[in-house]
Structure formats: C-alpha cells, structure tokens
Amino acid sequence: MASLFRKKIVTAQPAGQQLARTLSWPHLVAMGVGGIVGTGILTLIGVGAGLAGPAVILSFVIAGGICACAALAYAEMATMIPASGSAYTYSYVVLGEIIAWVIGWSLILEYSLVVSTVAVGWSGYAAPLLGAVGFPEALVKSPELGGILNVPAIAIIAVVAGLLSFGTRESATLNAVLVAVKMIALAVFVFIALHYFDAANLHPFMPYGFPKAVAPDGAERGVMAAAAIIFFAFYGFDAISTAAEETKNPARDLAIGIVGSMVACIAIYILVAVAAVGALSYTRFASSAEPLALILREIGRPGFATFLGASAVIALPTVLLAFLFGQSRIFFTMARDGLLPASLATVSKRGAPVRITWITAAIVAVIAGLLPLAEIAALANAGTLAAFVAVCACMLVMRRRAPDAVRSFRTPAATLVGTIGILGCLYLFVSLPSKTQVYFAAWNVLGLLIYFAYARPRAHAE
Questions:
Q1: Which keywords appear in this protein's UniProt record, sorted alphabetically (predicted)?
Q2: In this structure, what CATH number is given to the domain that contains residue 91?
Q3: Residues of the chain with pLDDT > 90: what percent?
Q4: Phi first, then psi: what are they for 273, rounded to 5°?
Q5: Residue of 100, 77, 87, 80 whose CA lies nearest to 6
Q6: 155, 163, 276, 304: which is deepest, by most CB within 10 A?
Q7: How many angstroms separate the CA atoms of 322 and 158, rounded?
C-alpha cells in the first residue's frame, strides 16, 4: 500500500494533457486585480461594516496584511514549482498526497463558492437594471431570500464559461479591458465620497469590540469577525498561480503577477473603505446588496450611483473569469494525477480544458441560483484559509529541505512572513462563524471518505 505522504514529482505532460502557454505578466496582473477587486469591495464592505462598524477599515488592514504574507509565499512557491494546481500541487510535491488531497478538496470548496458568491453579488447590482425593464423580482433572488431562483447569477456563469472555453489568451485580454473599467468606477467613487467625508461617521469607531463576540442580537460581531468575512475581498492572487503552465515565462511573470496585483489591491481597498464609512453612517448601508451605489445615492449623486452599478455589471465578471479559470485548473490537475476521473483531464484544440470548465460552471451555477451571499462567502473563506496555511508551510519546509534550490523570487524575511501567514490565517479561521467551521469540517470528512474509497487507489504520484 502506497504511503499516505508519497510525493509528486513534476514532469512534462503527455500531448493531450498540455495547456497552451499564451499568457505574459500583464495578463497575470490584470487577472490578479480582476480576481481580487470585485464582490469583496463592491458588496461585502456592507457585510463587514455591519460586523465591525467604522472599524471595518481596520478589518481590511488586518485581512490585507495576512493575505500579503500568503501572497509572498505563493510567489516563491509558484516560481519554484511552475505547474498548474496552485496550493494543491505545492502540497503534493512538498507535504505529501493526503495533505494535497485535503488542500485540493478545500480549493474545490473555495473556488466553487467564490464563483457562486461573485455571481450572486453581480446579480445584486444587475437586479435594479433588470427590474427597470420588467424582469420578475422573484427570479433575481434565492429561495431563502424570498425568491424562486437567481437567474442572472446562473446566466453570467454560463457566459464566462463560454468565454473561457473559447481560449485562454482571448479571455485574458478581454479581462484586462474590463479590469480598467472597474478601476475607473472605484476611482470615481473614492473621488466623490471623500468630498462628503464626515469624521462624525467614524464614531463610535469600534462599536462591537475587537475579537469575535456574540452581540445582544445573537450575531457574532467584532473587528476580527469582519476581517474573517472580508478576507474574501483580498484573495484572487492565488488564481494566478493556477496559470503556471499557461505562462510564457513563469520564473519572472508569476512573481510579478502575484505580488504586483496584491500590493495594488491593498491600497485600493483601504481608500474605498475609508471613503465609504466616512461619507455615510455604516448603519445605513450595512445590509445593502449594493453598498457603494447606495452611498452615492444617499449623498445625492444618483447619476454616479447608476454609473457604478453599470460598471459593476460590466466588470464583476472579471472575478468570475479569474476564479472559474482557477477552479477548472485545480480540477484538471487533480484529474491528471488520478485523484479525480481521468476523463476530466482533456484539453481542446486551443489547449483549454473545456470539459472540466463546463462541469465546474454547472456546479457553481446551482449554488449561485439557490443560496444567499453571506453564507457562501464565509464557507469559501474556510477553504482559502486552509490553502494559505499550506502554502506558507510549504515555503518554510522548502527553505529547510532545499535551502540552495534555485528561487527566481525569494520571500523577504521568509520565516517571519511564513509564520505570520500561518498564525494569521488560523486566527481568521477561529474568527469565522461557528456554523461555518462545522460545515468546513463536514466537507473535509466527506472528502477523506472519497479519498480512501476512490482517489487513493487510482492516484499515480510520479
């Protein structure tokens, strides 16, 4: 019986399972920014403000700092192991098969739920525009929110899946254009909202305290409770690492894409958060499905609110593209390793994994059509935190196991950065809603049953 901790050796893949190398660093930076800046800042800032009050600004700083540590670890591992699969592949090479399975299973949870969350968020911005032309309200909400089915969320997933099936480079180029639209919209919001900044809106700054605690209404609130949810707003850079086999110069381009997109987005988020809570009391936008547009309407700028909403409808699909791209590559790599059915590890004539892309799209469309935003985002965070811990651990292990190995990108102060990344992610996990932690544990119990019953006997670590 093979060891549970047998390692994978990355080798060249057979012709029918090779992804086409068509991406350069500008595509990767655009993919990173497009993946990071999206539902998190456009919709979850309201959820975060409801949990932390004006101190949601601090929640963004904490979540961003922890993600920055993880991003540095990702950059080092991606350039050392330039293969598709992201944290799953790094874990397989460094930590062993069963750890890789748990991380891969967690990534399936992360990417599937991120795509679903963003689709629901996109639908929230599209709903007012669709309502204006007579689209039934019951078809833009999940059953739990009083609707029948979230049809716009399902439709946008289908559109993005079709784009990805057409070709990786073509979809990446369109993504770059849409990212520019999104950046312009956020710049307009910051410029206008800062003119209405009122320091009184920041008091009391921390109404629910710092650690996660149960508020009088029974909800779990606090700065860290908010950070654990809006942590969702910062990841997306990890999708870049799934493009390693489709990058022309992975040794250079992966590090530029991961670190560059993360630095840019931390600055953008803090600016937007300050402008939002300063322009309007958080209690007035905390429960909104489109908080930034609501803020602009409340301060008397409805025209710009419409512009922001339209920009979100146009540009939020960039997040869908980044994560649906990443999820299909995770599935593809696990299938290529034998942990999932081998029939999923096939590519089209253009070198794109079309079959697994559409299967992934079908799964996430069901989730997006039936579940509300907040619950999806919290569970997605649990899977991401597990992956980030694994990548930081892989970096630290490789620094000891192979200190002289070639590293085209070296994380500065690696021991400190890796330790902060691990401990910070664990603290964020503890700060997640209790039922989310239970759901995540149940998901991984199911995953281990599948591993021992199906995946382990068929795996072929090379």
A1: Membrane, Transmembrane, Transmembrane helix, Transport
A2: 1.20.1740.10
A3: 16
A4: -65, -45
A5: 100
A6: 276
A7: 14
